[in-house]
Amino acid sequence: MLLDSHCHFDIILEDKKITEEDLIRSLKYNNIEYGVQVSIDAKGLEWSRDFVKRNYKNGLYYTLGIHPSSNADEASLEKLASFTGKEMEGKFNSLLLGIGECGLDFYRMKQSEDIQRRSFEYQIDLAKKHKLPLIIHLRDAMEEGIDLLKKKRAGHGIMHCFAGDSAAAKRVLDMGFMISFAGNVTYKNAVELHDAAAYVPLDRILIETDSPFLTPVPLRGKPNVPEYIKHTFKFIADLKKVPQSKLEDSVSENFRKLIRK
């Protein structure tokens, strides 16, 4: 069975060419056992929760967080904390997988570095308070992000859409995080990612689409959807020289370790 550890169903559905029913039907048809709706801003928290509550029988989970490119003013962070606290006490609290995606993005710089750091630290503290995994986004900020995580003694969660080589992967693994690879690992020139994906052991790896972004080869150029995860699984299995079934089993087991009972 396949899984998609990081997806933006809300953004996919902004393109009116596909319906929620179509998306859920596709998950079943393509043997996707688990999927995760990842929040990126304060206004999307309710949507993420409600979407998963409607569809949790199809193996869906959700996260609550504020992306480093999103507005992270005091009101937004307070809403995130309040909403998280309520959901942790709610009937469906086990559907909340973690906090994020949060982190640093020095490529886009849609928010200042100071705002990004404050938001990231706030969400690290929130995850630690509720003993939830962090879902981390680091773009052009690997050194700064790792240093901050070490400073805050954070070591539980997922380094999403990993963007480094095997040396960076070792540093992330040594802190205790799992590493998730997206469709860009299939790109011909992504040599450092190939190196990292070959290096990360089977008991610490996850795979994602980050859809509708980062569509894998051979479909690059099209909007990404969860069913395309099969191409990334095949690429990484070939890269690691293991049967795809073994990779699928390992990724599923790794994901289950993050689910709260």
Can you describe this structure?
This protein has 261 residues and is an alpha/beta fold. The chain has a single domain (2-258), classed as TIM Barrel (Alpha-Beta Barrel), CATH 3.20.20.140. The protein contains ten helices and eight strands. It has helices at 9-12, 20-29, 45-55, 74-89, 113-130, 142-151, 166-175, 191-199, 229-240, 244-258, and strands at residues 2-7, 32-37, 60-64, 96-105, 134-139, 157-159, 178-181, 205-207. The protein has an eight-stranded parallel β-sheet. Helix 7 (166-175) packs across helix 8 and helix 9 packs across helix 10. The longest helix has 18 residues, at 113-130. It is globular. The mean pLDDT is 97.
Order of helices and strands: EHHEHEHEHEHEHEHEHH
**Which fold name corresponds to the CATH topology?**
TIM Barrel
Main sheet record: 8 strands, parallel
Please name the CATH architecture: Alpha-Beta Barrel
Secondary structure elements and pairings:
Blueprint: E1 2-7, H1 9-12, H2 20-29, E2 32-37, H3 45-55, E3 60-64, H4 74-89, E4 96-105, H5 113-130, E5 134-139, H6 142-151, E6 157-159, H7 166-175, E7 178-181, H8 191-199, E8 205-207, H9 229-240, H10 244-258
Parallel strand pairs: 1-2, 2-3, 3-4, 4-5, 5-6, 6-7, 7-8
Helix pairs in contact: 4-5, 7-8, 9-10
Question: Quick recap of the structure?
Answer:
The chain is an alpha/beta fold and 261 residues long. It is 44% helix and 16% strand.
